[in-house]
Amino acid sequence: MGSKDDIVTRRIVVVDDHAVFRAGVVGTLGDDFAIVAQAGDVVSAVQQIREVVPDVVLLDVHLPGGTGGGGAEVIARTADLLGRVRYLALSVSDSPADVVSVIRAGARGYVTKTISPDDLRAAIERVASGDAVFSPRLAGFVLDAFSAGEPPASADPELDRLSPREREVMRLIARGLTYREVASDLFISIKTVETHVSAVLRKLQLSNRSELTVWATSRGIV
User: How far is CA 2 from CA 6, 53, 77, in A?
Assistant: First the structure.
């Protein structure tokens, strides 16, 4: 990873909508990296990234605000900084749809929140140096998506209509979780879950949860 002096020169922005998790990341990385800004939603993330132009952005996939595109929207709205700023997705989700969407947007890596502190530090260094970083399982999703030599969106245009958060809600609902269970898992309100489910059914032109489960199962999403 290089010397400690090299490590602390890496300027990091931490983007996650859970303040407690952000605090944990800052506490974990603060001795080795310069945490120059934090953000909890799409709009403030874009503002902070443009203001401080960090080396690496640790970016959650599911974020409130903006037009509902989450982490992928943050990258899209700062696309002119790609190359100067590198993005490492750090998410609770290991959904193939989430992984592919944020990588297609321009992220250099994707790791889940189960990653150890040492591995997270190493991943940040590698991304800052220009490498791509994935766990073996997540790397397989990306390789599969691009193996045909065409953009991932063309593989399933229906799925691409959904925002990252809508895809996560859809996946959990299709697994049979109740609205209350989904709300608890994603730290959102039941009303918000209902809103996302309504949007998913409308965008996919489905009538109910049963049809949604069949749709998701047929695509190997569940």
Answer: 6, 22, 32
